[in-house]
C-alpha cells in the first residue's frame, strides 16, 4: 500500500472513531447535538456546478450512500447551483427552511458564500465546507484534498517532464475560477512549481466558473500570439485542461504540448492514455465524500471531530493526492480500483490501453 493511502486510511479511521464515540454519546443521552436525536435528521449537500461531471456522478451519490449507511433515517437534500452564486444562496435558504441540521457546502463563489455560513450559524446549523474553503468567515469544519499541494504536484510534474525532454520555451497557466478560494490555493501551488523552473510564464488566465469553453477560447488566442513558443500548459483541472487541448487540436497543432489537469475524470484518463494530456490528480472522491458524511454525522450527534489541522481558522482534514501520468496510470487508476477497464478503455481507446498494458 502506498504511503499516502496509509495516511488516508488513518485519517478516515480517526473520523470514523470520532463518529462512533459520538454515536455512543448520543445513545447514552438519547439525543443528538440539537436535542432531536442523532438517528434522524436532514443534511444539505450543496454543490457548485455542472461543468465538472464529478458532482453528479461521484460526490453526490457517494456522500448520500455513506450517510444512508451511518444514519438510515437521515435525509440528504442535494442541490447543484450550476455556477450561479445567487442560486446557491437560494438553495441554502431553502434547505434551512426545510429544517436541515447540517450543511455541507462546496461554494460557487467562496466570498459570496460567507453569507450562507453566517446565516446558518446564526441558527445553530453547522457548516462543513467541502473542497473549497471559505476564507472570510470560518466554517465549522473543512474537508478537502490539499489544494495548494495539487497545484505544486501538477506543475512540478510538467516541469520535470519538459526538462527531461530538453524543451525550451514558455508555458501558459490556466487557473480556475477567480471567485473560488480553492482555485487560488491551486494557483499558489502552480507558481511554486513553475516560477523557479526556468520556463517563462508566457501568459496566465483565471477561468470564470472553471468553464472549459472559456479556457479553450483563451488558449486559442495565446496560440495565435505565441505559437511554437508554447511548450506546455499548466491547467488547474481536467475541464480547463480539456479545453486547452481542444484549442491546440482546433489550431492544427500536433503533437499537442503537454497539458496538466486535476480530478482524474474518465475523459482525462482517456486523454492521458492516448497521449493528449500529460497528467491529472487522483483524489478519489469517495475519500472526501465519505469523510464529509462522517463529519456531518458527528455534528448530528453533537460531537464533531477536532480536525487534523486548521486552515483559515477552520478545523480541517486535508488529504494528500497523487499525480497520474502514463507511467503510473495503470497502477493508480486501474489496480487502485478507481475506474475499471470497461469504463475507460472503450473502442476508441482500446489500442492505447493495450499498448500501456491496461487491457
Question: What would your notes on this structure say?
Answer:
By secondary structure, this protein is an alpha/beta fold. The chain has two domains: 3-139 and 284-319, Response regulator (Rossmann fold, 3-Layer(aba) Sandwich); 147-282, Response regulator (Rossmann fold, 3-Layer(aba) Sandwich). It is built from 13 helices and twelve strands. It has helices at residues 3-29, 54-70, 85-97, 114-122, 147-164, 181-194, 212-226, 238-250, 266-274, 285-300, 329-334, 341-344, 350-355, and strands at 41-47, 74-80, 100-105, 127-130, 141-145, 170-175, 200-206, 230-235, 280-282, 309-311, 314-319, 322-324. The strands form three sheets. The protein has a seven-stranded mixed sheet with strand order 2-1-3-4-5-11-10, with helices on both faces. Strand 10 (309-311) and strand 11 (314-319) form a beta hairpin. Helix 2 (54-70) packs across helix 10 (285-300), helix 5 (147-164) runs parallel beside helix 6 and helix 7 (212-226) crosses helix 8 (238-250). It is globular. Residues 1-14 and 16-37 have low confidence and may be disordered. Residues 43-303 form the Periplasmic binding protein domain. It comes from Agromyces albus. Residues 1-22 form the signal peptide. InterPro entries: Bact_Solute-Bind_Prot2 (IPR050555), Peripla_BP_I (IPR028082), SBP_2_dom (IPR025997). GO terms for molecular function: carbohydrate binding.
Question: How large, in whole angstroms, is the Cα Rg?
Answer: 21 Å
Whole-number count of domains: 2
End-to-end Cα distance, whole Å, is: 23 Å
Specify the biggest β-sheet.
Answer: 7 strands, mixed
Structural class label: alpha/beta
Q: Record the strand order, biggest sheet.
A: 2-1-3-4-5-11-10
Q: Helix count?
A: 13
Which whole number gives the mean pLDDT?
90
The CATH class label of the largest domain is Alpha Beta
CATH architectural name of the largest domain: 3-Layer(aba) Sandwich
Name the helicity range. 40-55%
CATH level-4 homologous superfamily of the largest domain: Response regulator
User: Care to count the β-strands?
Assistant: 12
* Amount of beta strand: 15-25%
The helix/strand order is: HEHEHEHEEHEHEHEHHEHEEEHHH
| Net shape | globular
* CATH fold-level label of the largest domain: Rossmann fold
Low-pLDDT runs: 1-14, 16-37
